[in-house]
Amino acid sequence: MCLLEFNDVSRGYGSEKVLSGVNLQVHAGEVIGLLGRNGAGKTTLIRLVMGMLRPESGRIKVFGEDPRKDPVATRRRIGYVAEDQELPPFLKVRDVIAMYRDLYADWDEDFATDLMNRFELPPARKIKDLSRGQARQVALLCAVSHRPDLLILDEPAGGLDPAARREFMETSIRLLNEEGTTILFSSHHMSDVERMASRLVMIHENQTWIDSELDDIREGYCLAQMLAGDGIDGQKLLSIQQCLCARRHGEALHAVFELDPDTCSRLLRDELGADIARCRTINLEEMFIELVGRPS
Ligand code: ATP
């Protein structure tokens, strides 16, 4: 079942184009890691899903409907933790939770209590006196205890130390997905995406540049490295259909291909007329830097 659909969606701010002609489908049970450089448009995409922004053109459907048609009904089925979400600082943890409980008719008190115990949250402590990690955990508990069909996390673990981040991501993503929740999360941490996501969507230059299952990325992409010169340059590599990007690193040329390493080696041998490229699998972090990093 398709929970979320973007059809040729464009949106910018003033004269700045942010998303242009984006197509995306999210199906029930998926865990999607949304990647992109700062300012690529991840939050903009999420705000469009939430109905907080209107697309300039194109069509968005969430649970089969325009999210702006009946925003209250749509929001009831979504759990959302924003990047910069602030909880009322002078309220106690239990009072914030009570506030959210009142908002949702289908609040699951057992689940909320379970998360409260799992996170070891102090119910009588004011939000302002919590650690950053604990405050994120309260925000998460409030976002998921009505058992949403779709959970959207915008850079949910920003500012947490690596151990707290891992624990938070494990709970929010693994636990909830095991319970059937579909999850869309943005992150700058490739390791989170590699560990948690079933699918990766990378936004670059106003588009979803890569939209692929994680397993396909591991097996279906490679990095080719060779020396520049003798008529071999970035332009020549980019003219090969499967080449996603090519850039110079000093004397070397690096190119990412949508091919497994063996096939890529054979293709480059045929195209370049010499066996000069070393092709190997590429991890997500390397791929991200090769694809969207600035030329060196
Ligand atoms: P980050 O990883 O830094 O959070 P992002 O991928 O979430 O970035 P967005 O927040 O969607 O990116 O921003 C995309 C672009 O739109 C940026 O250039 C940003 O400055 C701009 N932008 C975002 N919100 C507004 C706004 N309300 N008014 C004007 N420009 C905006």
CATH architecture of the largest domain: 3-Layer(aba) Sandwich
Sheet/helix structural class = alpha/beta
Largest sheet: 6 strands, mixed
Order of helices and strands: EEEHEHEHHHEHEHEEHEHEEHEH
Number of helical segments with 4 or more residues: 11
Distance between the amino and carboxyl termini: 43 Å
Total strands: the figure is 13
**Distinct small molecules:** adenosine-5'-triphosphate
Quick synopsis:
By secondary structure, the chain is an alpha/beta fold.
3D architecture notes:
The chain is α/β, with parallel strands linked by helices. It has two domains: 2-215, P-loop containing nucleotide triphosphate hydrolases (Rossmann fold, 3-Layer(aba) Sandwich), CATH 3.40.50.300; 221-292, Alpha-Beta Plaits, CATH 3.30.70. The chain is 36% helix and 29% strand. The protein contains eleven helices and 13 strands. It has helices spanning 42-49, 71-76, 93-103, 109-119, 132-144, 162-178, 190-196, 214-220, 234-238, 261-272, 284-292, and strands at residues 2-13, 16-27, 31-35, 57-62, 78-81, 150-154, 182-186, 199-204, 207-213, 222-227, 243-249, 252-257, 278-281. The strands form three sheets. The chain has a six-stranded mixed sheet, sandwiched between helices. The chain has a four-stranded antiparallel sheet with strand order 11-12-10-13, with helices on both faces. The protein has a three-stranded antiparallel sheet with strand order 2-1-4, covered by helices on one side. A hairpin with a 2-residue loop joins strand 1 and strand 2 (16-27). Helix 3 packs parallel to helix 5, helix 4 packs antiparallel against helix 5 and helix 5 packs parallel to helix 6. The relative contact order is 0.13. The mean pLDDT is 90. The protein binds adenosine-5'-triphosphate.
